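Service request form, structural biology core

Requester: graduate student, group of Dr. S.
Request type: structure prediction, single chain
Budget code: on file
Notes: please return the result as structure tokens.

Sequence provided:
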Amino acid sequence: ETDPARGNMTLLADGSKFTVVQYNINAKPEYALKAKTWKGTFENPEPWVSIDSGKVPSGEEPHESSGLWDDPAGLVAVEVPSGGEARFAVSWFFNGRWFLYNYDHYYENFFRDSLEVARYILDEYGRLRSSTLDWQEMLIDPSLPDWLRDAVINSTYILSTSTWLTKDGRFTIYEAPEVCPCQGTLAALCYEAGSLPIVLLFPELERSFLRLYANAIRPDGYVPHSLGIHSIDHVEDGTTAPPPWKDLNPTFILLAYRYYKRTGDIELIKEIYPKLVKAMEWELKQDKDGDGVPELSGDGDTGFDAMSVKGVDSYTTSLWIAALMAMGELAKLMNDERMVKIAEETLGKARRTYSGLWIGDRFKAWQEPDFGKASFLGQVFGEWWSLMLELGHVTDEDKVKAALKTIIRVNGGASPHTTPNLVDEDRGIVDYSPQTSSSWPRLVFAMMAVARELGVDGWMEVVRKEWDNIVKRGLVWNQPSRIDGRTGEPEPRRFLDHYIGSAALWSFTYKYALSRLRG
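Core staff response, request fulfilled:
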């Protein structure tokens, strides 16, 4: 019952010539040991020698693995005519409830074992294939170049590498399944980017997630960082918490409004609205000087966690402005005049404070430490949200465009590999923290999608450079959270794998897809 390996796998093909149910994929220990190595270095040659000589491999009687060297494999042989197609299915059914997954799987509602799954795939192959091609044709903006359309499609890989869907329909996404297995991580383009294809293709899963998260909000209104580590029942407040982070509550408010804009599901908004109000009121209390903006403590209290920033910063402030606009709209839906007034009054103050960061052609990154005119990639991040949700601009459109031009010129020109987060025009990439010297591909793609929508030149070159580096490094289906701007490589230690924000590339097609879905 608690064995994580309890289950079965199936390899099934149409018209198989012969089948080897089980054999050990490893060569005998003798070969590896004499070569001063271990299993995994040499594959068992016997099946291939037999096939090459026109014989059927003998294989082994099906059995449980008897030792650490006994790794089971199987073979299905199919004759394929020249120019033909080999059609096969690989499926699995593992339903052991263990400490890293103490839940049942949604697929258990429909299938009894992996053989049923494989047969279903082969029986429904034509429909599944055509439906997959249909959404790619329907939802990916045809005005994008082919390489960028391909990038958007491939970014959807996290739906297979990183998602949970429990038997009772609870849905979430790992932040990084191997290295940072937090479930449903919010802010800094985590779940909000990873779920772009979810809210478009499977809005019922987005509904499940929002209900799950609303129920996880702390009694004081604080929205946690994630639902838990390998869990959706043990929330945690942030990698550097305490103190609590300042970008989580605004993000949850925006997620709720995004879902409503996609679905018109007023019933869910009614259900979670009291939690949204508490989240809003908690964030308002983080403004310690009455300027309409939550101040940072210097303890890594945002999604840019590995970086000490104090006071007002452009990333959190622009995000908060977008959240205030969204909360005002949600309050109108609920006929909550008190909250409408609070949101509007706070919005005016927040915009004035944000304008105070303006220094000619960009917004200052943050107050402390002072990096002068260094250009910060996330300085107009709130505009990503405000445009996507049709809320208008977070500040004067001319300022947003000017800031994006600066980002494209300064950050985009600082590295031959990527677009780093913080760049000084004279001194180059700012090595204050790994978060400043690296690029976040998800943030690059999100901000360049904003530049594209606003007609700012140069965005495509920045995106192409970032994507080409990902392709060159073999990271298309395992995109990292950050890439060193100086080397083009993921961080040298185990990087945050299969990163939840990979689907930020859907920013380039989100509004187009939404228009197609609305008809």
